[in-house]
């Protein structure tokens, strides 16, 4: 670590949060300029919706979304229209603050009028989405998948998807949302940083039990139930590629303004965290994209109230060590020289 920068050039610069160097003239940097802005909830929704307007069938893996506060009137009108045309439609919506992370500020509503339109939404824009009411359950629990995607270059577009990821489980058995259970975050929200505070959270010593498991262990179970795992993977790959294609035009603009062609500068790569939810019919839905997925391989365990210690997490280690190792192999600066 070089907290005050370093004088000699490196092969690979590994930044913590975002691309922020104007004095790197060679080598490779593990962040793209503008990526953090591009995957914020509002920007991502806008980019995907642009593609949904052009290619509705290709981009049907992202829930219907509206941007608050500016599209609140449209949201109210569209929901009313859909309810009028189909009185049996009883939707639930999920409100996510634009800059929020780790489940912060997320809540569920049944009716547009329930949105907390007070000062907070004006100062804190959000996305409201149709909530996926029929997720695939394992052990009666809702879960999501964190997949690691390496964007190795923008031109040519080169994408790698790690073969294994994490499955992060809710800690209360799932029921479809009703007015009574809307606020039960441990049932509806898969965020690890929320569920870790649940009394039912299980820190696991193996990759196929507990509140965090490997995605491959879930695929094994699905396969043994007769599910078409090959098709599921190909749907996930398609979702990842199409999402990155939706982000590419603006990413190129950021890239060219920070690293203009013809001037010496680094090349970029980045590990992204894709959060995906499987529906009951095994259709993958994109929840969000993280520019900065956590690479920690230990978890905090509370020994006594307020006293924590870090304990190795075999599940995180199995998945994340492989992600970093293979990333470094793929961007290996020595390869060309050999």
TrEMBL record:
- GO annotations of cellular component type: ciliary basal body
Q: Which Pfam families match?
A: TTL (PF03133)
Q: Which UniProt keywords apply?
A: ATP-binding, Ligase, Nucleotide-binding
Question: Which GO biological process annotations does it have?
Answer: microtubule cytoskeleton organization
Query: This protein's superkingdom?
Result: Eukaryota
Q: Which GO terms describe its molecular function?
A: ATP binding; tubulin binding; tubulin-glutamic acid ligase activity
PROSITE patterns to which the protein is assigned, alphabetical: TTL
InterPro entries referenced in this protein's UniProt entry, alphabetically: TTL/TTLL_fam
UniProt key word ATP-binding = yes
Please identify the protein, giving its name as recorded. Tubulin polyglutamylase TTLL11
Protein source organism: Eurypyga helias
